[in-house]
Every structure is written in C-alpha cells, then in structure tokens.
Amino acid sequence: MAKEKMKTVRIIALREDRKRLLEHLQDSGLVQVRKTESGKKGFKKIDKSSQMQVFERNVQLTEHALKILDNIVPEKSGLLDSFKGRREVDPDEIGVIASKSGEVISACNKLVELDKLITDNSAEQVKIRSKLDMLDSWKNLDIPLNTTGTKSTAVFIGSLPEEYSEQKIKERLAEENPKLECELEIIHAGHGLTNFVMFVPISQKVMAEDCLRSLGYSRPMSPTSKIPKVKTEQLTAKSERLKEQSEQAEKEIASFAPMREDIKTTQDYFRIRSDKYSVINGLDHSKHVFVLDGYVPESDCEKLNALCTRVCDCVVEFDDAGDDAPVKLKNNKFAEPAEGILNMYSPPGKTDIDPTPILAFFFYFFFGMMFSDAGYGILMVIATGLMIKLFKPDKKMRNNLKLFQYCGISTTLWGFAFGSFFGDAPAVLYNTFTGNEMKMADFFLWPTLDPQKDALVLMIVSIAFGLIHILVGMGCKFIVCIRQKDYAGAFFDTGLWMLMLIGFAVLAAGMAFAPILVTVGAVIAIACAVGLVLTQGRGKKGIVGKAVGGLASLYDITGYVSDLLSYSRLLALGLTTGVMAQVFNMLSTMMGTNVLGIVFMILIFVIGHVINIGLNALGSYVHTMRLQYVELFSKFYEGGGKEFEPFSLNSKYIKIQEDK
Predict the structure, then answer these.
(1) 193-201 vs 183-190, strand pairing mode
(2) Which of 220, 170, 232, 239 is nearest to 198 (CA)?
(3) For the chain, which end, N or C, has fewer CB atoms within 10 Å of the first or last residue's CB respectively?
(4) Roughly what angle, to the nearest 10 degrees, separates helices 93-136 and 49-72?
C-alpha cells in the first residue's frame, strides 16, 4: 500500500513556446498546476478571463443545444451504452474540429432560437386557450364585448357571481332602484355565474351602474372590439398557425440530429481550451518567459523532464513537496479497483497510510460472503468481463467493472462454500423432473455450510471475521503511531486494546474447545484491563483524575462489542440471498412439468433471480461499504487529503489518442 511521493516542479520557458508546451502537458496529464501569488520581481499575471468566458459560454451553448436535440429527437442508446468509453480522436483531428467550430456554434444558436420560438408559441397558446375559454361563454353575443352604448342607450356587458334567470335579475334590480328602466338578455348561465347584456337609457347609466355593482357586477376580462364568434375564429386560426409554426420548428430541429456528434466534440474542444486558459491565468509572465509551478509524482519526474525538453528549450526544476501536496495512490491490479471506494470517503491525509489494499481485500471478501451464490457470482464475472472486452471503457469505469468482477469471484467461492447455485436450483430441477429426492449438498464433492441450518456457526464465523477486520484496522493505527513516534499511543492506546480483544477471543474459543484457553484468555484480558486503567488517564491532572480516566476508558469495551455485532449482517445478507432464491425456485415449479408449466418455470425463474440479484447485490454493496467506512476506518483513518488532479484533457465525449 502506497501513496506516490510527490515533488514540486517549476518549468521556465519562453512565452513563444507557451501554447505548444501547455498543449503537450495537457495531453500527458503528468502535472497538477499550482496557482501561486505573483511576487516575483519582473513577473505578472495575464488576465485571460474574457477568453475563458467565451469558451465557457460556448460549452454551455452546446450543452443546451444537445438537450434541445434530446427533447425532440432522443439519441438512440442501449442499456449498456453507459459502459462505453469516450470516442477516440486522432490529435490531427483537433484542427478539423477547431475549423468547424464556428459552423457548429452557429447551428447551436439556431437550435436555441428554434427552441425559444417553440417555447414562446407554447406560452402564447396558453394565453389563447385562456381567452377561448372566456369567449366560449359569450359565443351567443352578437355585439362586441367592449360595447358601452350609443348616443341614447347605455350598454352593460358583464357577469354576476350567481346563476340568475332574466326575471330574477330584473327583480333584484327593481329592489335596488324601482325607477331603473332596462332590457336585458342572458347570454350564458351556469357554474355559479351569469353572463348578460343590459340596455338602459343613457340618462340612467349611473343609476344602472350603481345597481349592478351592488349585485357584484364585473366586466369581461380583455374585452374585444370583435363579436365573440369572430374573435373566437381569429384566435383559433392563430392557434393553428402557432401549432404549425412549432411543428415546423421541431422538424427543423430534428434536421440537426446528424450534427449531434459534431456538437459533442466541439463542446469538448471548448472545454479543453477553457481549462488551458484557466491555467494561463495562474502563470507568472515576464516580457519574454513564463513560469509554471505544480506537483508531479516522483515516478513521473524523468518522463516530465524529457517531455518538456523535447518540446522546447526550458528549465525544469524539481523539489520535495510539503504536507499540503495532493495525493496520488499507487496500487497493484488487485487493489486499484477499490481506489474509487476510498476516494468516495476521502483521499489519505498527510499522516495516513494508504488503506486501499486492505479495503480491497475485505470489500471483495465481505461482498462475496453477503451475496454468496455461485451462480450469481459466475454471472457477475462473465458480464463484467464482456463489458470490459466489448466496450473498452475509460479507466474509471474499467476499475468499477473490475471491482465487481473481483466481487463476483468472491461471491462464486462463497457460493460453493455455502452450497448455493441460483439458490437450490439444481436440486429443485432434478427433483421436479425425476421425482427423486436430492439435496444441494449431494451436488458438491466437498462439505458445505447451509446458512439456514448452520446459522449459529455462521454467526460465530461472521463475528470472528469482524474481529479480524477490527484488529487489522487497529494494527494500521499502531503503525501510524509508530511512524509518528507516538510510542505511548501505539502501545497503550492501541496495543493494549488489541491484546484485550485477542484475550476475549481466546477466552471464547476456550469455552467452546479447550478449557485451558479460558484461563489464558482471561489472564490476557485482565492484564490488559489493568494496563488500560494505569495508562489511559495519563493525560489527566492529579492521581484521582488519572485513576478516573483509566477506569472510564474500560467503558469503550461496549463500543467494540457493538462494532462486532455489526458483522452479523454478513450472515443476515447471505441468508436473505439464499432464502429469496429458494422461494423463487419453489414458485417456478408450481405449475408442474407440462409445456405451460415449463414456460411458467422459465419466466418465474428468470424474473425472480433478476429481482434477487438486483436487490441483494445493492444490499451487499451498501453494507460492505458501511463495514469499511464505519467499522474499519474509524479505527485508524482520518482522510482529508486532496486528490491529485492533473492538468489534462477534461473531455466528456472524446479521448485524444496518444502519440504512437
């Protein structure tokens, strides 16, 4: 287990070589650029913010254009396409992408313009529908809604907030003012609303308005100068025009679908340029030279030096990095897939050791014990192997697939140990089609454990593995303390607890196998308890404080007991996987062995085991992570480091081929 030793690097080169050197550094991904405060005499920063904003706007524009295309003409993709790696592009093709970028950006602007037209038309359609709904209740009116009267007559067009008949309105108006003379017509009445038109002498206009207001009179919303029927026809025609316009815009958007790949590559081109200009912003420049400061793994120093001197005349200086240097992990093929799990938690801090190999071993081990079915494990190994072979994924996705491939191997081994192959499928199928009685144990040449019958044994085994897991974590803490020359912490705070737990384990083993071990375990545990009482209060003041601190430390044993009980999930998840598989096997044979029964059997078998794989693979993954993060890392791991982030081609869709 190792963290790569980091070096600081300073590259001094001519300004005229800046573009070429940065492009090669970006291609190589060897160095993490470090932003420094400009304090060197004769040097200053160059502001490239305006260029970066242009590039970033283009990235956002292309992202928006792709979303627009996906809404109208979704990209055809299969279930497994997410495992595919980025499209490889020859370095010479970057120039072609750059030359076509203007055309692509124009196309993206056109897509945005068409999408805005569709959006605006949709908003206008909402307004039209609202107006049509309002006009629908006035469709029998044969005068414009904004009519207010003639020279001799006042006209009131509006609504009352209740359902009225013509006679009822006249009666209510007479109650308000008996002198009012009017003629009215109900245009529409229903849903607690009455639309009407009323005519009164011009001399009684104010009187009529006062009477109507007392009844809750309101004028129509957005009255028009057109007869409602005519206005309705106009709005309907406009709605049809907008609909046709939007449909035409959608067809035009769909015509850009063949440009989808060009838009993706152009987006990456501008993303790469934005990253480069971001780096330029942090460099120190004089009139003729520029200075780049950064971090590089010690193993890559020679490669970086050779690259820089090959590209241009420059000075490359290396020095030891401080505690604030980023972390780059270096592990073998077995442990490397687990680096993603570690980084999800946190990269190692300056005092941490790299726990990836330990994490990898126990992750594979515990996952397999929880999933524990040889059939499922073989499927995982084959499926992940095919995905790696066929799709050639990026390093990150490849490591994720390798992680599950190793978990599949562990699952297969534990499945054979538990005598589980798609649950008890071989025995169920054999018994169903032959009428004989055969157990799963009869199919294996070695003795197996049945999680249902041997649950107590497996519980003990699970807790024993948990004890080993915890002791390994404490052993790592012991090593960390020794490295920091904290010998008291190593021997008193960690060593004594390790010995005490071992003592309890020996005592428990003695109760089951050999009485003499009970005495040995008890002596070890008591001696360690005395040692803890004498040493754990050493930081307290006074004899009483030291004694109380030492005695109080023994309470921590409850925490270790709780931690050990957490490993019972190894049995629980393994039992769940097996029981669910057996239930689906039993259900699949319910219809017998006739043609219909065989079809039913295949259907239930496939669906049932797919469900079981999905649920219990997820459960095994989550609970295995919990055992690493909570039970193991809490014993020694602090984290808080910064992951090494090299200046590289930060592309989403394309991968630049390496120079051969």
Answers:
(1) antiparallel
(2) 170
(3) C
(4) 60
